[in-house]
Amino acid sequence: MIPVLLLVIFAVLSPGPHCSCAPSSLRPTLPQPPNAKRCRRVPPNSVTANTLEVDKLRFGNKGGFIMWVYRGEEKLRAECSERDTTRITSERGEQYRSTSAINVTNILSTVTQNVGIVAMHEEKNGFECETAMQCRFIKSSTLHNHTIELYSTKFVGAKLACDVLNFARPDVRQHFGIRCSLVTVPSSVRSFKRKRLKRSPDSRPELVYTFIEQAVQPGAQVALKCSAVGEPPPRFRWALDGQPIPSHLGAIITEGRESGPSGLGSSSNYVLSTLSLSSARVEHGGRYECRATNNHGSVAHAARLNVYGPPYIRAMNAVKAVAGSEVTVWCPYYGFPIDSVKWEGGAGADPRYQQMDGQLTINNVDRNRDKGGWICSVLTPGGELARREVQMTVVSPPVLSPIVFPPGLRAGDRAQLTCTVTSGDMPVYFSWLKDQMPISSALQVDERGAEFYSMLLFKSLTAAHSGIYTCVVTNTAGKANMSAELAIKVPPYWQIEPTDTAVLLNGSLTVSCEARGHPPPSIYWTKFAGSTETTLGGVSDPVVLTNGSLRLESARAEHSGKYRCRAENGVSPALSKTLTIHVNEPARFETQSANVTAKLGETVRLACVARGDSPLSTAWSHSGRALPNSDYRMSISETRSADGLRSELVIERADRRDSGVYRCQASNLYGRSDHFVHLAVQEPPEPPANFRVLETTSRSVRLQWRRPYDGNSPVLGYVVQYRKHDSTSSDSWRDADTHNVSVSAHSTDSYSETESATITGLEPATAYLVRARTVTAQFASAHTRALLALTLHEPPSRAPISLRASAPRSSTIELAWQAPPSSSWNGELLGYTVWWWPSADGSLAGGANVGMEFATVRGQITKYIIEGLEHYTRYSVSVRAFNSAGAGPATAPVNTLTQESVPSEGPRAVRCRAVSPQSLKVEWSPPPAHAHHGALLGYKLLYRPEHTTEWLEWEVRGNGGSNLGAGAGAEVKRVAGVETLLLALRPHTNYTVQALAYTAAGDGVPAHPIHCTTQQDVPGSPAAVKVVATSVTSLAVSWLPPSRPNGPLLYYTVFYRELGRDRPPQTTTVQVEDGDPFVGLGGSTELRSLSEGATYEAWVAAHSAAGEGEPSAPQPATTTSRARARLLSFGVWARVQCGHSLRLACAWRGEPAPRTRWLRGDRPVTHDPRAHLTNLGHLAIHEVDASTSGNYTCSARNTFGSEEVTYRVECASPPAPPSLSLDHAAHTDARLTWQTKHHPAAPPHGFTIWWVRVRDDTGDGLEPSGRSEEERRIETGGEAASVVLRALSCGASYSVRAVAHSRAGSSPPSVPLLVKTKPPVLVWEGGGEERPEEGAEAAVWSNSSALAVDARRAVRCGARLVRLQWRRADAAAAPAWRDADLTSLHHHREVVIGGLTSGAWYALRLWTATESARHQAIIYAATTTHSGERLRRPIAFQSEGSQITTTNGTADTERVLGAVSLAFAALAALAVTALLLVLVAKRSTLWPCGGQTDEETRRCSHSVASTDKSVCPEQQNIRNCQHDYKHDKLSPASDVYEISPYATFAVGGEAAAATLDHTLQFRTFGHRDNDAPPHRPCRKHPQRHRERAEVEKHHSECELQQLSRYEKVRPRHCAGTSYCVPLPHHAGSSGGGSGGGCGSGGGLSEVYAGDSSAESGPGSLSPRTHHEHS
């Protein structure tokens, strides 16, 4: 009893809107009101133990009681409630039944909505209270006897029935589920609520709390409450069945303003209205409505109050309906319970009639069919009937015909307007409005009319009559109106009339033209031009303004003339006015001054042209004085023309005294103006003499000349013109640059006849033409003849521009830039050097170049792709341009962050533990830093419940009880930290948990799954309970197990008691049976020694290790001697995994003993080998499959009756094997997708993917490799349809299979899928002209005699290039493979193959090695022609074999490789020995490249390595080959060395006389990419070309010396440092060798030897290792 009393305190926990009087409770309207009580689902043991003890309860008057809550002697607050019963057991033990409508704002997922603990939180007076309740969902219309009722905003139309829990805790005093503690609400939260609920000063009413529909017993106390908020405060009105509440009912209505919940504003606008009934009677029943109203609107709420009693219908007033509209009629009945409420009448069955809960709605009312009597009938379940008739009349509103004024009415006309009613009930009443106002008597409008029409008479229309006239007609059914517009037309008249006007030239003018009329007239301007008239507008000149005025901003002569202004509004006559505008022009000159020069003795003509209106005159003066009349050399003449008055002054035989300023003055009536002419008579000087070039540098030219004759005028200076020698224009000097040289005053002793000047700012490596002339005060001499000056070369002076870097992938940076301005090339641009290094801030750490890498891009290519970078790493990139003189400055470093990738490893040390029945705590450690590959955004936890292999589920037929599992998909939780709580889990359930880290690029590799089981919880109530009579003194009770046992069940407790007797219930205990359970029966027991003919109620509760579960609903039964046949088992829908057995229960009771039988469908179950009957009558199915699924019925029959239950048996099969497919395969990862089919009731909840590396020697690829690599696996959730396999080997084959898991079992493994990753060398297999950029062939650069392979781009995924072979690919017979020299391969960068034939295709076989395998690939590349053209790729080459992969998995392979290596070593030793012998034998036949003696050799070596060209000119002139690279130490920044373009060389001399017929001259040309040097050795005699194979192995001393100066390693072969000179064909020189007689297998490898990180950097490049690209 005491817990129930405390529940009442909880149900009315706070005053005001929270004060609830039972059984009428406050139900929040949707949407949820502010400060609603909040509930959430929590475990019972998490309720706060800091309690507020209720010491004393004091009661008030009989209408209810007021409870004061005390703590000690301190009164905390007061609560109110109404009593439902009068059963009092003690002062603190009154028993109440109450419903407290509380808004449930946080219900968990639907899998937990029917079972669990709900905690209700409230804050009041500084306390936070939490009450724990056990709840279940019920329908809104279901009656129940639970203590608390909660309404859910999440599930519309649903509510929870709850009981407060009483916890048995030894460490805490019993406080019946209510826990309170002092709290402090943070100010930030309060301010947030105030801001969110801020209201406007005035607002319409809003209902905060309303009453709900309820049923009460007669005599009960009832209080219906409505509370609302608004500004101004609203007033309430109450109604019963649409009528004011009669006074004889004794209802008391109170209304007051109280302090509302926080956030609803001040207490002045919060109103609470209560309708109270002290003792409910059956006539109090009906539909109650409360309506809140203020100045801004009203809002209403209605619900029924049902009082138990016979039915009755109140008298109803006649109903008046409007034809064509909708009418609603309520039946004002009362009484309870009611089985049906029906309306009868009208046209019978008509779709326009709709009935619902006593409400009749008629759509589109029809006068003939719907008028008359309508009868409402109310029927109770007991057959009592109440009827009442109401009369319905149908009326018709008026219908008007359209009204309209005659068109074209003008002032003074007469008119009338008629309004006619075409249909509708009579009488009708007319009224007229003008512009929504009554018609003024001043308008003198007469109104006349008859029974169904009315008219307005207008005797003389004026502009005041214009407006909208409305005819309004009303009758008893409604109102109608019709409108028409009257517009009186008035012709235009002048408001401002335009007149003639004048304006000065370039002045502004505005001509006004305004008119009035109705409608308002439009203004038009036109201009007369002869016989034509041109219309002016808003964009013309002059312009017409929006107000009709004409505007001239700057008057010109052409603006003079006649104009017309017209005003029109469509009413005649229109207005028109013609006017004239004059533009007066004062005397003026187009130019203010002029300069005139004349040679001595010439005739000079000085002219001025004056403009202006006539009359116009001119006058001349010289130096402020009038011209002398006596000077016969001067004459003046005037000529008039269209341009104006031209006055010309002629001076014959000009001399120096005629120099000066002449003024020409013009005047007319409107002003005067002056024009000045400056006359100078001079003689021209001579051009500079002995003009020559003294000195040139890369940026300047120094010139010298002798002073010329000055022409009797002081020389002010000289003008030097210069331009590039590349123009083909005949007048190319027009845009030439000039250099002014001023002449300073020289003293007598320092005077010099010569002058000099230096032209700076020139471009290097450029030819210029230079000339000069003398400049005096008025004359300039003729130019000198042009001289040719050549500037010297220098490295580029500017860095490339617009360097852009982007990271399209996680390990790649794409660069693009623009070439520096051509003016800064300082020669021909040969290429670029790209540098990159990891840097956090873009700077060089410590000033060193450690970790820096670079690549060389040849030619005019302005883009580069850097690959193989670290993921999510910031790199700095810089680019330099270079030419033959060296490298230029570097660009400013550009910082680029490579893209993020997904983490390659999952979280470590993942662990979990159970915290409660509904929660698990999971902890982990982050992945290692090197595996992040980006900024970790957080972690994802994938968790799902695991299902046992013995899967069985059932559902009660026709009931809500079920143990069907929820969706099988995994749930995902995002977490920022390294620990979290997984909430809302199922009790006593094993969960699989996986953790993974994620970045912006996606989810990383998940960690290995772990398993954790939640704690047990108390079981739920049994799913169903039956109580049947077995004899006159006994009852049988049976039940189904709880749908949520929440752990192993131990026993059941059966409670029973006799109805009508105040005794505690008796109990009996039933243990849970071991072994396989029966479907359809959880347990049963017999209750004996009961009273005869008495009615008992019984209920059942389950017990587990966690405690006693929720009891079932009581079920009544009466003992009787006529015990008809009853079944204790329950019909359920059972589902089991296919192939498992199933036992169906059929337990019966009855007296006499009934006869039972089993049916499958409609056939008896007899001798079925797949099923048998047990001794107790149960049915056992041995193996459930499709043939044994279906409906099974157990029936029992005896003398007094029969009963049957039906089972629905269904089996679910495991999923089908997934169908794997490869979506994408890269070098080290592959993405797979799959599809699978499954049973609808058992979707996959997870997939397991296994993969293992296999050998692909035979092409099958399904055999595990001999290395016995361990098989790996990954698990995904059931919602996944793809997976990425990472950390795969490059160029390897893998066998992949997948298995799907569901609660019906696991699928068979899928068909193995062979997945091959990309090999280290990607081979392009297509045809045509273009090759893809991803292939290895794009990494080959070529010219006419060499191929260079960029190993960085050709070989991917960290593999090493261990061997490279080459041979001709377009030869008729495939030649033998030749090995390329890899000694120049520095840091796996570049291999150069020289001495090749131009315009030929070659096959390159690349051998690469990884940690696990060796790979072989063949690619094709072609040399260019001599002219630089590239060959078209053939459609197909001769098959050379495909990619070959050799694994290191077996000992046999290693032994074979070892033997091969020893054999190669022996052959190499023999080759070295033979090479030494050949060198000794052939030493005398080799010419040492600089002469025949050692001294000459040293001199030649020195001459090549220095800039002194005079050391050994004879040797240089007779050599057959010239060095291609100038290895002069130009600067530390030198990168590439080339022959100077456009240089001319001569080969010949005495030493060559014996072998050459003539001296050979040749000249170099502009550099192209294909002109990179082929590598030839030096030879003395051309007839020894046949010894090429041996000569290629030897090199000159000069080459070794010059190469050693730039290498930090021991000098090696330098065969690739010479150009070969074509030799004439002699009779003895036709031996072997190619056209030039030169070739080398070594290439350019040694030129680039060295360590790039030791001495070079973005600011200082030395000839080191390069990547060359074309």
Structure notes:
- By secondary structure, the chain is mainly β.
- Helices cover 6% and strands 42% of the residues.
- The chain is built from ten helices and 118 strands.
- The strands form 31 sheets. Strands 2, 5, 6, 7, 8, 9 and 10 form a seven-stranded mixed beta sheet that branches. Strands 74-89-97-96-92-93 form a six-stranded mixed beta sheet, with no helix packed on it.
- Helix 6 (1494-1505) packs parallel to helix 9.
- The protein is flat and about 165 Å long.
- 36% of the residues are buried.
Please tag this protein with its features.
1670 residues; mainly beta; seven-stranded mixed beta sheet; six-stranded mixed beta sheet; 118 strands; disordered C terminus
Low-confidence stretches: 1-115, 152-157, 167-199, 844-848, 1258-1266, 1327-1331, 1438-1442, 1446-1457, 1484-1670
What's the mean pLDDT score?
A: 75
Tally of DSSP helical segments: 10
Total beta strands: 118
Concise account of the structure shown:
Helix content is 6%, strand content 42%. By secondary structure, the chain is mainly beta. The strands form 31 sheets. Strands 2, 5, 6, 7, 8, 9 and 10 form a seven-stranded mixed sheet that branches. A six-stranded mixed sheet has the order 74-89-97-96-92-93, with no helix packed on it.
Topology (SSEs and partners):
Elements: H1 2-11, E1 26-28, E2 38-41, E3 65-71, E4 74-81, E5 102-104, E6 117-124, E7 127-139, E8 148-152, E9 158-164, E10 178-182, H2 187-196, E11 203-211, E12 214-216, E13 222-231, E14 235-240, E15 243-244, E16 252-257, E17 270-277, E18 286-294, E19 297-307, E20 309-313, E21 319-322, E22 327-330, E23 333-336, E24 340-345, E25 353-356, E26 359-362, H3 367-370, E27 372-379, E28 385-395, E29 399-400, E30 415-423, E31 429-434, E32 437-438, E33 445-449, E34 453-458, E35 467-474, E36 479-486, E37 490-496, E38 501-504, E39 509-511, E40 514-518, E41 522-529, E42 532-536, E43 543-544, E44 550-552, E45 561-568, E46 575-584, E47 588-589, E48 593-598, E49 604-611, E50 617-622, E51 625-626, E52 634-641, E53 644-651, E54 660-668, E55 671-681, E56 689-696, E57 701-706, E58 715-724, E59 737-742, E60 754-759, E61 767-776, E62 787-790, E63 801-809, E64 812-818, E65 829-838, E66 853-858, E67 863-866, E68 874-883, E69 886-890, E70 894-897, E71 908-916, E72 919-925, E73 938-945, E74 952-956, E75 971-975, E76 979-982, E77 990-999, ...
Parallel strand pairs: 5-8, 12-19, 21-28, 38-46, 48-55, 89-97
Antiparallel strand pairs: 1-11, 2-6, 3-4, 6-7, 7-9, 7-10, 8-9, 11-13, 13-17, 14-15, 14-18, 16-17, 18-19, 20-23, 22-26, 24-27, 25-26, 27-28, 29-30, 30-34, 31-32, 31-35, 33-34, 35-36, 37-40, 39-44, 41-42, 41-45, 43-44, 45-46, 47-49, 49-53, 50-51, 50-54, 52-53, 54-55, 56-57, 57-60, 58-59, 58-61, ...
Helix pairs in contact: 6-9
